[in-house]
Amino acid sequence: MYNIAVIPGDGIGQEVVEATITVLDKLPIDFNYTYAQAGDKCNEEQGVPLPEETIKIAKDADAVLFGAAGETAADVIVRLRRELNTFVNLRPVKSMQPEKYGNIDFMIVRENTEDLYIGDEEETPEGAIARKKITKAASEKISEYAFKYAKDTGRNKVTAVHKANVLKLSDGLFKKTFYEVAEKYPDIETNDFYVDATAMYLITNPLDFEVIVTTNLYGDILSDEGAGLVGGLGMIPSANIGDENGLFEPVHGSAPDIAGQGIADPVATILSACMMLDYLGESSYARKIEEIIIEVIQEGTNVTPDLGGTASTQEMAEYIASK
What we know:
There is one protein chain. By secondary structure, this protein is an alpha/beta fold. It has two domains: 1-92 and 235-323, 3-Layer(aba) Sandwich (Isopropylmalate Dehydrogenase), CATH 3.40.718.10; 105-229, Isopropylmalate Dehydrogenase. The chain contains twelve helices and twelve strands. It has helices at 12-24, 40-46, 52-60, 73-83, 98-101, 136-152, 170-182, 195-204, 216-229, 267-279, 283-299, 313-322; strands at residues 2-9, 31-35, 63-68, 88-94, 105-111, 121-124, 127-130, 157-162, 189-194, 211-214, 237-241, 246-250. Helix 10 packs antiparallel against helix 11.
């Protein structure tokens, strides 16, 4: 039995998590779900967006399934990643509709603990200052993960993304450390690009990428751009993984403009659950669900409006589960 902490959060998070549980419950696996609160509504009701009880539930679980956070995202999901010591954020950009978007399939390996996302800001007489933190230890750890991931998954190239021409000390350290780690993996091709150039290359040459390793902010931005290559944010899952904990969430936010309408695409969250199954050692079921999702999307009838159908979030999930 696996103990899963479930944190639906805000907006469509509630809907896509419910849909995902519908799919998971069809598997011959015993899941024990413990629900916990976090987000904007929690902040209104309890005075804190991320209660200590929720943090404890997450730490005690075998894995955490998270929906979405609204305005309190920095105090919820960013903090939760830090509390669970999840140093890597995996964001796969893979086309579920190759006939429409091509055979795009690359992984963004995002450092999860540093950069501007440490939230070290202060007001000044002129405006405000935000401090960017990059350490050799974290850069080395994320680079090692990226190369090991490439090796374990049969990928042949790892690309580092930075802005070392301007941020010579911080991003310069990241780039230098990346190439030091690369020396231990001579069979894997390496290169690096500035983040602005990468933003263009993702549009012009997306098939050139296999594994991208980068810092926190750049990884966040590029993964959203990657979503645009394969059908939108409703298609991109993510995994936050540490030495002891795993936290799984869709890349999209709470989408208040469509929350409560039952039309949110559940695919990103269901695919996040597939990454959770991989983490738990249940990869055969993860691959089966992925195959069914591709089949359902290609059929094009029992899918949500963003995919060209008329099904509700729950109806799409129930159809996937029925298969």
